[in-house]
From TrEMBL:
This is Glycosyl hydrolase family 13 catalytic domain-containing protein. Residues 158-523 form the Glycosyl hydrolase family 13 catalytic domain. Pfam families: Alpha-amylase, Alpha-amylase_C. It comes from the Bacteria.
Length: 623
C-alpha cells in the first residue's frame, strides 16, 4: 500500500541547531542489492541562484523488506554562515539515481535528476519543495457546514486559472462575478502542471501538488474555502491516462531498462499509465483521496476516459470511480445527514466523447461531457439553419439519446440507493473554437470570431440555461470571447488565451453578459428550469422559419415554464397552447419593462399567438 506519510518530504520546525527533514520515495524494482544509490540534493530557496551556494547531497537508505522498495533518509541541515541552510523557509530538492559497477566499483549516473512523484509542494524548474512548519500558519477551513450541491442545481464554469485571472487569488477575486452568472460549480483545468512555458496542464508531472506559481497549497485551499463559503463547488480536471515524459516512473525506468511499476508504452498524448499494475492503481487512487481530504474538493472531471474504460467491472476508470465514491461516503459534505439511505453527491464527470452514455450508465460516474449540444450549435451557427434534433433530442430529451436519469449505487451501509445522473451540456469548452467563430470570422492573419455578431448567440444561451442536464460555460463565452483554436499542433495547448476582460464592458459583451446573468438567476430561482420534465411543441414549432417552442415543468410544485427561441433575423409569430390556467409572465426582460408582459390563461391548453424578436427568445413562467 502507498502511505503518504513515508514518502515525499516532511520538515520539522527549525530550531537553534538547524532543520530536520525526512525524505522518502518508492522505487519498485530498484534495490541496493543491484548496486543502486539514490541521492537527494537540497537547497534553501533563498540560495537558489547564488553561484557560490551549492546544494547539499544526501544518500538515501534502502529499507529492506519495505513495500514498494522504499528509500528514505532523515536529513539534518546545520546552520552555515553565508547561506540560508538551517534556517526556516522553503527548501528545494531533487533526486539522482546512480549505480555501482560490481566489477570496477565505479559509479555511473543513471538518471541525472528527477522530481519527487509524491511531492506535496513544488517550485520552478520542475523542482520539488518542502516548507518548515513555522514558516506559515496552518490553514483554517471555515466550510464545516458546506454541502456539495445536488447535480440538478449545478451550473458549471470551466476555466484555466492562469487564462482566467492569473492565479488562485485572481479566481477568488472574480467569485462575485461568477455568482452573478448563476455559477454553482467551478471546473478547474489541471492545476498541477509545473512547466513555466504555458500549457493546459494535460502533461501531468506532480499529482499531489498544486501549481506553486498560482498560489500553491495555501492558494488552492483558500480558493476552495472561499468558493464553498459562497455556495460554489469545485471540481478538478485530472489526467490519469498519460503522463509527462519526465514523470519519474517513466524517466527512471527508461534510464534503467527496468519495467516501470506504473507506465506502459508511449501513446499519442504521452507515456500511458498501465492500470494492470497494482502500483499504478494505488498511486492514482491515493491522489484522488488526497484531493478529497486535504483540499476539500467536490469531485473530478476525468480526462480521456474513453481510453480508460474497460467495462463496468474494469480495473481502470470504473474501479477509480467506484473506490472514490465509497471514500466520499465517509466525508460529511457529500451527504445531507451522513445517515443510511443517502447517496453521495460527489461529482464524477467523465470526458468520454466516444461512448458517454455507456460509461455513465455502467460506472459510478454522476455526469459526463458529451458533444451533442456543442456540435449541433456549431452546425446551426455556421449554416444559419435550425435542426429539430437540437431542441427535441439534445436540449430536452436526454433519455431519448441514451442517458439514464438515475442509477443504483450504495449508501454508507452498502445498501442500494438511486442516485441522479445527467450529462454536462455546453456550447463551448477548452477543446474547441468558441461559438462566435462559427457564426463569422474576421479576415486576418490570426483569425478571430466576429463579435459584432454576438446577438446570434442569444437563443443558444437561452437554450443552454433552460436545458435538461447540467449547463456548463467555458470561460469568456458570456461576453463572446472569440478565440479560434487550431485543430492540431502545439499551438492548441501552448498558446495562452487570456480572457479579454475589456469585452465585458464593450457594446457586444455588455448585453450578452446581462442575458447570461438573467438566465442564471432564472435557472436558480425556478425549479421548472432545472427539472427532468419537458415537452417539445413539435406541431407548433416551425423549423423552416427558425422558431421553436418547448415546455419545462416541475411536477412536485406544479411550476411551468414555456420557452421560445427565434434563430432568424426577423421577428417570428408562433401559436402555442398554454397548458394550465393562471398567469404566465415573461421573465428574460421583466426587469427592463415598465409593465409586466403577462398572459392570462383561463382554460387548459388555451392558444395564444406571440411574436418573438429575431435571434432572441422568451421564457414565460407560471408559478
Amino acid at each position: 500500500m502507498i502511505n503518504l506519510r513515508e514518502v515525499g518530504a516532511y520538515a520539522r520546525p527549525a530550531n537553534q541547531d538547524g532543520v530536520d527533514i525526512t525524505f522518502g520515495i518508492y522505487l519498485p524494482g530498484i534495490t541496493a542489492q543491484d548496486g543502486y544509490e539514490v541521492h537527494v540534493q537540497v537547497l534553501h530557496k533563498a540560495d537558489h541562484f547564488y553561484e557560490n551556494v551549492l546544494p547539499r547531497d544526501f544518500l538515501l537508505r534502502y529499507r529492506e523488506g519495505a513495500a514498494n522498495d522504499l528509500w528514505h533518509v532523515d536529513v539534518h541541515l546545520s546552520l552555515e554562515e553565508g547561506t540560508h541552510f538551517g534556517l526556516s523557509g522553503t527548501y528545494l530538492y531533487r533526486y539522482q539515481l546512480l549505480q555501482k559497477d560490481p566489477a570496477s566499483e565505479e559509479k555511473r549516473v543513471v538518471t541525472r535528476w528527477f522530481t519527487d512523484p509524491f511531492a506535496l509542494a513544488t517550485d520552478i524548474g520542475l523542482l520539488s519543495s518542502v516548507v518548515t512548519p513555522e514558516s506559515f500558519s496552518p490553514f483554517e477551513w471555515t466550510d464545516q457546514d458546506w454541502k456539495t450541491p445536488e447535480l440538478a442545481d449545478l451550473v458549471v464554469y470551466e476555466l484555466n486559472v492562469e487564462e482566467f485571472n492569473s492565479n488562485f487569488a485572481g479566481v477568488i477575486e472574480r467569485i462575485p462575478y461568477l455568482k452573478s452568472l448563476g455559477v454553482t460549480c467551478l471546473e478547474l483545468m489541471p492545476i498541477t502542471s509545473l512547466k513555466l512555458n504555458f500549457n493546459w496542464g494535460y502533461e501531468p508531472l506532480h499529482y499531489f501538488a498544486p501549481y506553486e506559481r498560482w498560489g500553491g497549497i495555501q492558494g488552492l485551499k483558500q480558493l476552495v474555502n472561499a468558493c464553498h463559503n459562497e455556495g460554489i463547488a469545485v471540481i478538478l480536471d485530472v489526467v490519469y491516462q498519460h503522463v509527462d515524459a519526465s514523470f519519474p516512473y517513466n524517466l527512471i525506468y527508461k534510464d534503467t531498462g527496468l519495467e516501470s511499476p506504473m507506465i506502459g508504452g508511449d501513446g499519442p498524448f504521452g507515456p500511458e499509465i498501465d492500470f494492470s499494475k497494482d502500483f499504478a492503481r494505488e498511486y492514482i487512487q491515493t491522489a484522488n483521496y488526497h484531493w478529497l481530504h486535504e483540499y476539500h474538493v467536490d469531485g473530478f472531471r476525468y480526462d480521456e476516459v474513453t481510453d480508460l474504460y474497460d467495462g463496468p467491472m474494469g480495473i481502470q476508470y470504473a474501479q477509480i470511480a467506484y473506490n472514490t465514491y465509497n471514500e466520499s461516503l465517509k466525508i460529511s459534505r457529500f451527504t445531507p445527514t451522513g445517515k443510511a439511505g443517502e447517496y453521495s453527491r460527489l461529482i464524477q464527470c467523465t470526458e468520454a466523447q466516444n461512448r458517454p452514455q455507456e460509461i455513465l450508465k455502467n460506472t459510478f460516474s454522476t455526469s459526463t461531457w458529451q458533444d451533442s449540444l456543442r456540435c449541433m450549435a456549431e452546425g446551426m451557427a455556421e449554416t444559419g439553419t435550425v435542426d429539430e434534433h437540437f431542441v427535441h433530442h439534445v436540449v430536452l430529451d436526454q433519455n431519448y439519446t441514451g442517458y439514464p436519469y438515475t442509477k443504483t449505487v450504495q449508501d454508507i451501509e452498502g445498501q442500494p440507493v438511486d442516485m441522479p445522473v445527467m450529462p454536462f451540456q455546453y456550447l463551448e469548452n477548452h477543446d474547441n473554437s468558441q461559438l462566435i467563430s462559427h457564426v463569422a470570422i474576421l479576415p486576418d492573419d490570426v483569425p478571430f470570431g466576429d463579435r459584432s455578431q454576438f446577438y446570434k448567440l442569444q437563443p443558444f444561451a437561452i437554450a443552454l440555461y433552460t436545458c435538461e442536464g447540467t449547463p456548463m460555460l467555458w470561460q469568456g463565452q458570456e461576453f463572446a470571447q472569440n478565440y479560434v483554436l487550431p485543430t492540431k499542433g502545439r499551438a492548441r495547448v501552448c498558446y495562452q488565451r487570456n480572457i479579454s476582460w475589456e469585452y465585458f464592458y464593450d457594446e457586444y459583451g455588455t448585453p450578452l453578459v446581462q442575458l447570461y446573468r438573467t438566465l442564471g438567476s432564472l435557472r436558480r430561482d425556478y425549479a421548472a428550469l432545472r427539472s427532468r420534465e419537458s415537452f417539445y411543441y413539435s406541431a407548433e414549432s416551425r423549423i423552416e422559419d427558425k422558431i421553436v417552442a418547448y415546455r419545462r415543468h416541475h411536477g412536485e410544485s406544479g411550476q411551468v415554464a414555456l420557452v421560445f427561441l427565434n434563430f432568424s433575423d426577423a421577428p417570428q409569430k408562433i401559436d402555442v397552447p398554454f397548458p394550465c390556467t393562471g398567469t404566465y409572465r415573461e421573465m428574460i426582460d421583466h426587469q427592463k419593462r415598465s409593465e409586466p408582459y403577462e398572459i392570462e390563461v383561463s382554460e387548459e391548453n388555451q392558444m395564444f399567438e406571440l411574436e418573438v424578436p429575431g435571434h432572441y427568445g422568451f421564457i414565460f413562467i407560471k408559478e
